[in-house]
């Protein structure tokens, strides 16, 4: 009697274990779309930068009005997902800014050295203010000083609403880059 009871018990626990393994395996092998991976499940490489615009190549306006480009990413070790390209990468959107040929350095230099003639305002596309500054010697240099501050702090930008061209990896801009070294943190 005791022998039979033991058998039933072990069979029950065995089928339990089999069921558990089955569910565990099916859960693990369930692959999701790469674009749906959470932070920490993938590593992205810096996007390719257009040297003219100093923005990621392919920066374009999205339907929601923001500007995005795409950076290549790879799934983290032991993470698998669908939708990888042949070289094992997938693309994720990164923020970028629209630029229209107006350089921050140029604007600031013009403001400092030629601001009393309004050249900085002409450069940025405010001809009326430029002319006013030209005729008044930059409001007797007071307006020039104000403009230097406004441009240096980037409160005043190009008149068309575009962003200044500033070196993508240059001083003044913070870009957090996560690479395989940052991500990979061996324990022990
Ligand atoms: C860089 O941007 C400029 C201006 O938008 C464009 O004319 C040029 O084709 C771009 N270059 C590359 C390599 O994408
Ligand atoms: C993954 O999702 C993106 C957008 O959410 C979609 O365009 C793409 O077709 C999907 N790929 C697969 C393999 O399901
Ligand atoms: C990987 O493939 C994608 C699309 O096929 C391509 O845009 C990307 O440049 C490739 N990356 C490398 C490192 O070859
Ligand atoms: C990170 O990538 C570089 C080259 O891209 C490689 O030399 C290095 O071994 C990688 N480091 C780790 C921890 O995978």
Task: Tell me briefly what this model is.
It is a multi-pass membrane protein. This protein is α/β, with parallel strands linked by helices and 188 residues long.
Provide structural commentary.
This protein is of the alpha/beta class and 188 residues long. The protein is built from 7 helices and 10 strands. It has helices at 2-28, 104-114, 119-124, 127-135, 137-140, 142-152, 180-183, and strands spanning 32-33, 42-44, 49-50, 55-56, 60-61, 67-75, 81-82, 90-95, 99-103, 163-165. The strands form 4 sheets. Strands 2, 5, 6 and 8 form a 4-stranded antiparallel sheet that branches. A hairpin with a 4-residue loop joins strand 3 (49-50) and strand 4. Helix 2 (104-114) runs antiparallel to helix 6 (142-152). The two termini are 51 Å apart. The protein binds 2-acetamido-2-deoxy-beta-D-glucopyranose (4 copies). The site of one 2-acetamido-2-deoxy-beta-D-glucopyranose (NAG) has 5 residues, from loops.
Write the layout of secondary structure elements.
Blueprint lengths: L1 H27 L3 E2 L8 E3 L4 E2 L4 E2 L3 E2 L5 E9 L5 E2 L7 E6 L3 E5 H11 L4 H6 L2 H9 L1 H4 L1 H11 L10 E3 L14 H4 L5
Parallel strand pairs: 1-7, 9-10
Antiparallel strand pairs: 2-6, 3-4, 5-6, 6-8
Helix pairs in contact: 2-6
Bound molecules: 2-acetamido-2-deoxy-beta-D-glucopyranose (4 copies).
């Amino acid at each position: 009697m005791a022998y039979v009871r033991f058998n039933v018990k072990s069979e029950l626990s065995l089928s339990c274990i089999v069921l558990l393994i089955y569910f565990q395996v099916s859960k693990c092998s369930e692959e999701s779309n790469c674009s749906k991976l959470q932070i920490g499940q993938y590593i992205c490489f810096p996007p390719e930068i257009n040297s003219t615009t100093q923005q990621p190549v392919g920066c374009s306006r999205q339907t929601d009005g923001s500007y995005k480009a795409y950076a290549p990413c790879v799934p983290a070790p032991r993470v698998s997902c669908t939708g990888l390209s042949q070289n094992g990468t997938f693309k994720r959107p990164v923020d970028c800014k629209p630029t229209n040929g107006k350089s921050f350095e140029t604007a600031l230099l013009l403001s400092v050295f030629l601001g009393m003639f309004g050249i900085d305002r002409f450069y940025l596309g405010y001809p009326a203010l430029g002319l006013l500054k030209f005729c008044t010697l930059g409001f007797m240099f007071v307006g020039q000083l104000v403009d230097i501050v406004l441009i240096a702090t980037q409160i005043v930008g190009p008149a068309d609403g575009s962003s200044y061209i500033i070196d993508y990896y240059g001083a003044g801009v913070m870009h957090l880059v996560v690479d395989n070294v940052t991500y990979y943190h061996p324990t022990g």
